[in-house]
Design goal:
alpha/beta; GIY-YIG endonuclease; Rossmann fold; 4 domains; seven-stranded parallel beta sheet; 21 helices; 3'-5' DNA helicase activity; Probable replication restart protein PriA
């Protein structure tokens, strides 16, 4: 009797393996690899995925039968099953957890719809394009990006350099001609090859149009595309660009925000081969595209690409692994560049696509810091002023020229943090010690943690009752600038309301990072305020993240030849500010990577974070047979009642570390250890 190998949907590490079940005669035809099934496991009915069929089992005992077939639709392709296993192994996780991220929940009504209707509904412009962040994933074996042959020039069977130089040759839009290697990259895609590239976009670049060009070239070769972005605004922009380039009905978008029916309809359209291109947020990483030829990711440094659910994969690494397993082309793109992307270039696994200096100078705005010596000589107060005179002058000149002004503020709200006006001690909630904040000019101080109102607040240090602003948010900034420039429209863009575009003409836009709108014709001036809030964060990626946010905002300014100016309120001697001034994200990424090599931090090394109770973490480490090269760092306090231990190994020992930790977790789950331990490989936030 035929045997089905099933991955049971049970989140226990010691059960992370396929189990054999007999296939009843009535299910023999429909119970095929990739289908959802229900099986009896440990006395209970549980869901599972049918991974494979075999004529006989290696199990000597008695086998149970499949209880029933949930659906005859083969939702799990062999390619995605292999990718999911690689992701689980990379992150010391379980296959069932990854498959839960990769395959959306079933929607029976949508599944019964005719195939043509499903494809048409999923590819409908607005239906497919209006999306938000979704569940996603990450992977990347060490034999992948860095472990690959450093001399490799293609990811497939083609020959020639990974990003050959040369003229466009009729392929693509003139936009790619701004980069010497750009037309060659498109030509390689159209020829069916698998180039791997790290692209640094120019200021003002229509990156969505460039992605659409790359997708069109790949589709022309008869292959499919998966493109991933961080949030809904970027997804809407890419959706519009692809609709204009490929036409309606040629792509779908995957996102949890679509709702169960529309998301599953889009997933089925890709699975059934009705569309060649899938775009989306993290969820799109596992999209079952037929004959995958290109994987692309925009702004891989955005923390929205990091999956918050076990096994906590990152979108960039999932795509790199998928490209490695499927011999597909890769495009890692952004205005900024991460240390991970820099590593791909330094090892030769990918080639960079950058513009020459002349083109960069012609497209860049004029960038000026306020904390260097010449500025301090003209304005001694610039060292402490939140808006130095240079920033006021830049904003005033842009408004006078009837151009909009963008002001980037790191914090949202009105006054998200206040302190005692007498002794400057931070104002804390008397009940939970949370930070007090003001929501408006007339509101009463309230706690940001427990929401209790502190109407009669008195400083416990000096008894003072007056409060002053410690941190100024976007709404207070908008209020101040509105008074400074009367008669000028003031708009805000943030979590509560995100603006996609703003009209041309004089106006002020106050935005938090990541919510900056696009202005018609570009912004006349961009002011980057409160740089200390980003640069002084206790985070390994503080400088990298600050530069990423600054470049994203500065890229929206007009070129210097058209009067575009960027003012960053920071010391010009700082490395991130220097990279912004020269618009050299590659230089800064190389500097960051060199420092991390010296200190032994990712991506130069692999690091695992173990978080849990002290006894549980110690028990896990006792059960783990760590590689000899492993270093233990910590423990340090984490959340209340928990501690965190870091385990570091060289990149070459990453697989051994993940396997050892997964085995140790399996030992603890098998003996029903009470306290769980959260295991994260290369977490986005190490500290």
């Amino acid at each position: 009797m035929p045997v089905a190998r099933v991955c049971v949907d049970v989140p226990l590490a010691h059960l992370d393996r396929p189990f054999d079940y007999l296939v009843p005669a009535e299910l023999d035809e429909q119970a095929q690899p990739g289908t959802r099934v229900r099986v009896r496991f440990a006395g209970q009915l549980v869901d599972g995925w049918l991974l494979d069929r075999a004529e006989m089992s290696g199990h000597d005992g008695k086998l149970s039968y499949l209880e029933r077939l949930v659906s005859p639709e083969p939702v799990l392709t062999p390619e995605i099953a292999r990718l999911a296993r690689a992701v689980a192994d990379r992150y010391a996780g379980n296959l069932a957890d990854v498959l839960r991220l990769a395959v959306p929940p079933r929607h029976a009504r949508v599944e019964r719809e005719p195939a043509a209707a499903a494809g048409a509904g999923a590819a409908d412009g607005k239906d497919a394009g209006q999306v938000v962040a979704a569940a996603g994933a990450e992977a990347g074996t060490d034999a992948g990006p860095v472990g690959a042959d450093s001399g490799a020039t293609t990811g497939g069977s083609g020959s020639g350099p990974v990003v050959p130089d040369g003229a466009d040759g009729g392929v693509g839009d003139p936009g790619w001609r701004s980069y010497p290697a750009g037309p060659g990259f498109l030509r390689a895609l159209a020829d069916g090859r698998a180039p791997r590239a790290v692209w640094s976009a120019l200021p003002g670049e229509d990156w969505a149009a460039r992605f659409a060009d790359a997708a069109a070239a790949t589709v022309r070769s008869g292959r499919g595309v998966v493109a991933v972005v961080a949030d809904s605004r970027d997804l809407d922009r890419l959706d519009a660009a692809l609709t204009g380039r490929l036409g309606a009905g040629r792509h779908v978008a995957l996102s949890a925000a679509l709702g169960p029916a529309r998301r599953y309809r889009a997933f089925l359209a890709a699975r059934r081969g009705q569309v060649p291109v899938v775009i989306g947020t993290r969820a799109a990483m596992f999209a079952p595209v037929t004959e995958l030829g290109l994987v692309a990711i925009w702004d891989d440094g955005d923390d929205l690409h990091a999956e918050p659910r076990a096994p906590y994969p990152h979108a960039r690494e999932v795509l790199l692994t998928r490209a490695q397993l499927g011999e597909a082309a890769v495009l890692v793109a952004g205005y900024a560049r991460t240390a991970e992307a820099r590593l791909l270039v330094e090892t030769g696994w990918a080639k960079e696509i950058v513009a020459d200096r002349a083109t960069l100078r012609a497209r860049s705005p004029q960038v000026t810091p306020t904390g260097d010596d010449p500025q301090l000589a003209r304005d001694p107060g610039a060292a402490t002023a939140r808006l130095p005179s240079l920033a006021w002058e830049a904003a005033g000149a842009a408004l006078k020229a009837d151009a909009p002004v963008l002001v980037q503020v790191p914090r949202r709200g009105y006054l998200p943090s206040v302190s005692c006006a007498e002794c400057r001690a931070p104002a804390r909630c008397p009940h939970c010690a949370g930070p007090l904040a003001l929501r408006s000019a007339t509101s009463i101080p309230a706690c940001r943690w427990c929401a209790r109102v502190a109407a009669g607040y008195a400083c416990p240090h000096c008894g003072g009752r007056r409060l002053r602003a410690a941190v100024i948010g976007a709404r207070r900034t908008a209020e101040e600038l509105g008074r400074a420039f009367p008669g000028v429209p003031v708009r805000t863009s943030g979590r509560e309301e995100v603006l996609a575009t703003v009209p041309a003409g004089a106006g002020l836009v106050i935005s938090t990072p990541g919510a900056e709108p696009v202005a018609e014709g570009g912004f006349g001036a961009v002011l980057l305020l409160d740089s200390w809030a980003m640069l002084t964060r206790a985070d390994l990626r503080a400088g990298e993240e600050a530069l990423r946010r600054w470049l994203a905002a500065a890229a929206l300014a007009r070129p210097a030849s058209a009067g575009g100016r960027v003012v960053v309120v920071a010391d010009g001697a700082l490395a991130p500010v220097q990279a912004l001034l020269r618009w050299e994200p590659g230089w800064f990424a190389g500097r960051e990577l060199a420092e991390r090599r010296e200190l032994g931090f990712p991506p130069a090394a692999r690091m695992a974070s173990l978080t849990g109770g002290a006894a549980a973490v110690a028990d896990l480490l006792d059960a783990a047979r760590l590689p000899e090269e492993a270093e233990l760092l910590g423990p340090v306090p984490a959340t209340e009642g928990q501690e965190r231990m870091l385990v570091r190994v060289p990149r070459s020992r990453a697989a051994a570390l993940a396997a050892a930790l997964h085995t140790a977790v399996a030992v603890r789950t098998a003996r029903k250890a009470g306290q769980p331990v959260r295991v994260q490989i290369d977490p986005h936030d190490i500290f």
